[in-house]
Amino acid sequence: MIFAIISDVHANLEAVDACFKRIDEIKPDRIICLGDLVDYCAQPNEVVEIIKSRCDVVTLGNHDEAQFNYSLSDGFSDNARISSTHTRTQLNREHIDYFRTLHLTHSEQDMRFVHASPLLPHKYKYVLTEERAAENFQAFKERICFIGHSHIPVIYEEYESAAHKVDHTSVRKDRRYIVNVGSIGQPRDGNPKLCFGVFDSNKFEFRYERVEYDIKKASDKILAAGLPEFLSERLYKGV
Hints:
The chain has helices at 13-26, 44-54, 62-65, 78-90, 93-101, 130-137, 215-224, 229-237; strands spanning 2-6, 30-33, 57-58, 105-108, 111-114, 144-147, 154-159, 162-166, 177-180, 194-200, 205-211. The longest helix is centred in the first third of the chain and has 14 residues, at 13-26. The model has no long low-confidence stretch (mean pLDDT 97). It has one domain: 4-Layer Sandwich (Purple Acid Phosphatase, chain A, domain 2), CATH 3.60.21. 44% of the residues are buried. The strands form 2 sheets. The chain has a 6-stranded mixed beta sheet with strand order 4-5-6-9-7-8. The chain has a 5-stranded mixed beta sheet with strand order 3-2-1-10-11. 33% of the residues lie in helices and 22% in strands. It starts with a strand and ends with a helix. The chain contains 8 helices and 11 strands. It is of the alpha/beta class.
């Protein structure tokens, strides 16, 4: 089966439209979203509606949870906290209720899906180093775990009791992996193109998809909504 795995959508309607246009060309069997549907960009309601209608599975992200667990945003950066508070004034009640139904993790076909990390997923910890990846391999039994949260695409391979980064072309069936699929709505790896993952579970092959979208339109909407200028500018740089 072919899986399209997306994450960190962040209310960016232009990126979402471009993403699903590419997904429709790929024609995957399953579409999995790893959460963070809202904040940072300007159209949370429209984006939530699309994700609900198009994705087979959606896991809960920290920005989603912060829409009903307000104290969670206390640990956000200043811009993220401002954005989260703004989203509360915009988001429809039905979408908040929808977030309450989402689970932190999902498993199928020897795959684990989670927004931040398989180790203590409710804590929303980042997996940014090989050392942290090695700890997280102990927290799941599946062959491969897909994550988001950091907005940075990276693949960690388990090797004995350690972990090391590998390229997507090195993924093979006899090893275990943690794969960060990157971000749709706010890439942070220096490449402004939206990023998501495609996984063939039969061939055990993974690749990244990078797609251009109308950044100016998304950026202008952020400014028009009165959100911090930095959130608008960073889209152009992919940071």
